Amino acid sequence: MLYAWIDGVKRPPLRKGERTTCDCGGHLTAVVPVENVRHWRHKAGDCDPWSEPEGPWHLGWKERFELSCREITLVDLANGERHRADILCGAGTPQTTVLELQHSPISEKERAAREAFYMKTHRMFWLVHIHNEANFNGYSFGFSLDFTSRPYQIDGHTYAVMRWMGRSKQFIEKWKRANAHVFFEFQGTVYYLASESFSRRLGGPFKKGEFALCRLTRDDFLRAVHGVP
Question: Which residues contact 218 (CB under 8 A, 6 or more apart)?
Answer without folding.
Answer: 64, 190
